[in-house]
Design goal:
This protein is α/β, with parallel strands linked by helices. It has one domain: Response regulator (Rossmann fold, 3-Layer(aba) Sandwich), CATH 3.40.50.2300. The protein is 33% helix and 22% strand. The chain has a 5-stranded parallel sheet with strand order 2-1-3-4-5, sandwiched between helices. Helix 3 links the parallel strand 4 and strand 5. The protein is globular and about 35 Å long.
């Protein structure tokens, strides 16, 4: 059982993510707002972070919060929606976990579960950027 921190600004998607992940016995730390994330990180370091990022939509994902730098070894899955043209810019500016994957919303449960499993079971050296990362 893994601890998974999810941040998703839309309630219906956050509830769906929680339902899917708890359904396979993961413990979900649910951040209802960006302000909740540092509190949850301080209390209980997760095994995976799932971020819902809605580019060009409200609520807007703010400019890079400081907490992302605190967890360079925690795999992060970004669930994108919104302006496709903004995705490359977002990823180029990313300064968080080096173990980063992305999916496009809406998410089908089975590919989500496969991605979560792959990210949680990846060898530690892969999470750090590969065995030859410096």
């Amino acid at each position: 059982m893994a601890k998974i921190l999810i941040y998703e600004p839309e309630d219906r998607y956050r509830i769906m993510l929680r339902f899917i992940l708890e359904g396979i016995n993961h413990r979900v730390l649910d951040a209802g707002s960006l302000e909740d994330i540092p509190i949850l990180l301080a209390a209980d370091k997760p095994d995976l972070i799932v971020l819902g990022v809605h580019l060009g939509e409200e609520p807007e994902f703010p400019t890079w919060p400081d907490w992302r730098l605190e967890l360079p070894d925690v795999p992060t899955l970004i669930l994108f929606s919104g302006e496709e043209s903004m995705r490359a810019e977002f990823l180029e500016a990313w300064d968080g976990s080096r173990s980063l994957n992305q999916m496009i919303q809406p998410i089908d449960p089975y590919p989500l579960l496969a991605m979560v499993k792959a990210m949680l079971t990846a060898p530690v050296e892969w999470r750090r950027g590969g065995q030859h990362a410096g």
